[in-house]
Each structure stands twice: as C-alpha cells, then as structure tokens.
TrEMBL record:
SUPFAM superfamilies: Pentein (SSF55909). Its EC number is 3.5.3.6. It catalyses: L-arginine + H2O = L-citrulline + NH4(+). PANTHER family: ARGININE DEIMINASE (PTHR47271). This is arginine deiminase. It holds the Pfam family DDAH_eukar. The keyword Hydrolase applies. It comes from Lutibacter oceani. Pathway: Amino-acid degradation; L-arginine degradation via ADI pathway; carbamoyl phosphate from L-arginine: step 1/2. GO terms for molecular function: arginine deiminase activity. Keywords: Hydrolase.
Length: 304
C-alpha cells in the first residue's frame, strides 16, 4: 500500500509518478493538438522527437535516483502522449484526487490504474463529469490551496482552459479547513506567449517563502497582488512573457533546498543559487515545446 502525504510543493520528496515519453506517437495533426506551443512547433517542423524527449525524462529520472526518490512510471499506451502526469491526478494531504481532464487526454488515467490500486480506496476521490480540473492548476501552500481557473463565458471554446469554477468549488468542498484561493488566468488558444495554460505555467512557490511569478498571467491585478501580499515583493522572482513561454515557473522542487531546473534558465538558476538553493540543471527544452516542463511531468505521492 502507498501511504500518500503531500502538504505543499517543496517538502522533501519521497515518491513520485514521472510521465513517460515512450510511444508518444507521431507528430500530431494541428487539429489534434491541444495547446498553442505544440501547434507552433508542428507548423514549423520542429515538434520534438520521441527519442529526444526520452533522453530528457531519463535525465530527470537520474536526479530522482540521486536523491533516492521512489519513482513510478505510467504503463505505456501505444502512440499516446503520457508526458504530463501532473494533470491527471494529484495528492492533497492523504487523498488522491482524480482529475476530469481534457477528453483528448482521458486515457492517460488508465495507465496509472496499477498505482491507484495500491492506495486505500477510501482515499481516492472522483468528481462528476461537469466538474473540471487538472493538477497543473492546483497548488498547495501552507494553509492555502491555490487554483488556476478561467471564468470567461467562452470557457467551452477555450481548449487551454482546463479548470472551471465547478472544479474550484468541488475542491473547496473537500477541504473546508483550507483557504482555497482561485486565480482567473489569461488564456489563448493561438498564442503561447499570451497563454497561462495552467497555474504552474505562470506561478510556483520554491523554498519556504519564495515564488516564481509572471504578473501578466493573471487576468486581474488584484489576484497578482494577493500573492505579492502573501509572499512579499522581495521574495518573488518575476519572469517576462518570453520566460513564461520558456516555462521558467515550471521547475520542480525535491526539497525546500533542491530545485530541478532547465539548464538554459540562466537568470532564474542564478537567482536560485543566490538564495542558497542547490539547482539540479538538466536538459528539458524539447519537452517544453509541448507547453509543459518539469512540474507538469511529475505527480508527487509522498513528501515529508
Ligand atoms: N501542468 C501543466 N502545465 N501541464 C502541461 C500540459 C501540456 C499539454 N500539452 C496540454 O496541453 O495538456
């Protein structure tokens, strides 16, 4: 049996599900892609190869080995994208909440059934079909649950909007003792630089009291100011539109001292080191072409 425990984003990691790039399938058709950055690379002929993405995920796996983190991998589904495990389910405290994700990605959940089977059934939570959320939009911080959402009336036409207000309220109802704060995110189906696909694409805490943030990813300045107020301006690392596009906010914490980051994120990695983090730099730029990075490809099961 796996004894789940995740209270935040940065406590020492002990067990994690890491996505896989094996049998990712051929380059998708434009009409089958579900984020603008993938579409951009399909058009340009630069969509990442399976081989390159496998190498990148192996590099992340090696870091987990170094820190003696127990790693679970999804079972392989033929020709199916299974890189971004983060979105398909997530752990809050000792519960596994299974997401209602974009229908294009639904099969990904079958591939982790063998892991779900090792969890006490009364700790597993599912929501009804009209309740939408993906793990990339959900983040834990002290007594808070932060949730990225999209409140526009055109929600159903926005393929990059994955968490609705029903999703926010559902999570709120599960954790009456936590402060659930939702953020209306900026979305674009067509321009990746104007698209905060998930909350972790424009914001993420690191360490005990710091965070990476892209101000313009928040539709309302008051939401951005809420975070400024909570963390303190001096503890925030602000990233530009271009850095959001490169996925700077999507690094991944192994502890409140150790952060895995992309090797080309020089400005961020220097800032982290200046604040006494150990930065484990790995190549992940090919995977970033699908508008996801390190946080997106991991699903923590146990942290201290
Ligand atoms: N947690 C995340 N930010 N996940 C990124 C997922 C990217 C994937 N291309 C999608 O559109 O679903």
């Amino acid at each position: 049996m796996i004894k789940l425990n995740v209270q935040d984003e940065t406590s020492r990691l002990r067990a994690v599900v890491l996505g896989i790039a094996e049998s990712n399938g051929p380059t998708p058709k434009i009409e089958d892609a579900y984020d603008p950055k993938s579409i951009e690379h399909i058009k340009a002929g630069t969509y990442p190869s399976e081989r390159d993405m496998i190498l990148e995920m192996d590099a992340l796996n090696k870091v987990f080995e170094k820190y003696e983190v127990k790693v679970y991998r999804p079972k392989t589904i033929k020709d199916y994208n299974q890189i971004f495990t983060r979105d398909i389910a997530f752990v809050v405290d000792d519960k596994l909440i299974i997401s209602n994700i974009l229908p294009d990605r639904e099969k990904e959940i079958d591939a982790i059934q063998y892991i779900i089977d090792q969890i006490e059934p009364n700790k597993i939570i599912r929501a009804s079909e009209d309740v939408h959320f993906e793990g990339g939009d959900v983040m834990l911080w002290n007594n808070h649950i932060f949730i990225g959402t999209y409140k526009g009336d055109d929600y159903k036409d926005i393929i990059t909007a994955r968490t609705n207000m029903k999703g926010v309220n559902f999570i709120k109802s599960l954790f009456p003792n936590k402060i659930v704060k939702e953020f209306d995110l900026v979305k674009s189906n067509t321009n990746a630089k104007e698209n905060a696909l998930h909350l972790d694409c424009c914001f993420q805490p690191v360490g005990k009291n710091m965070a990476i943030i892209h101000k313009e990813g928040f539709k309302n300045e008051t939401d951005y100011l809420y975070l400024v107020n909570l963390f303190g301006m001096e503890n925030l690392f602000h990233i530009s539109k271009d850095e959001m596009y490169q996925m700077f906010s999507n690094v991944f914490s192994i502890s409140n001292k150790v952060v895995v980051s992309e090797k080309s994120f020089t400005r961020l990695n220097n800032w982290l080191r200046k604040h006494e983090f150990i930065v484990e730099e790995i190549p992940y730029a090919e995977i970033s072409k699908q508008e996801g990075l390190l946080r997106c490809s991991t699903m923590p099961l146990i942290r201290d």
